[in-house]
Amino acid sequence: MEILWAVLILLGLGLILGFGLAIAAKILHVKEDERIGEVEKRLPGYNCGSCGYAGCRSMAEAIVGGKEENIRKCRPGKEETNFKPIIEYLDQHPNEDGSKVKVHL
């Protein structure tokens, strides 16, 4: 009988904590800018850090966030295959307020 109570108490705690986590996931969800992933796809993907960022993901976040305007900091990238598609993509997908992301070669 004692084991049954222990199991029921743990089951109840599991349900309560599970619902708490589900609610917290909905409330604390952070929407990520989808342009970051798209810019990252257009970077070479070497994650070499030669641009001064931890990897291509960090560089993409800086570009989309407006912290980095010079795309040529990515040394392995090539103008035709990497940089121009990024500039074209960002021209077609402006910020939420309608302003364009400033980037240059």
What does the model show?
The protein has 105 residues and is an all-alpha fold. The protein folds into 2 domains: 30 residues; 59 residues, 3-methyladenine DNA Glycosylase II, Chain A, domain 3, CATH 1.10.15. The protein contains 4 helices and no strands. The N and C termini lie far apart (74 Å). 16% of the residues are buried.
> How would you classify the quaternary structure?
single chain
- Count of the separate structural domains: 2
Shape: elongated
Q: Flag low-confidence runs.
A: none
- The CATH level-2 architecture of the largest domain is identified as Orthogonal Bundle
Radius of gyration: 22 Å
Going by CATH, the homologous superfamily of the largest domain would be: Electron transport complex subunit B, putative Fe-S cluster
Task: Give a quick rundown of the structure.
The protein is built from 4 helices and no strands. The protein is an all-alpha fold and 105 residues long.
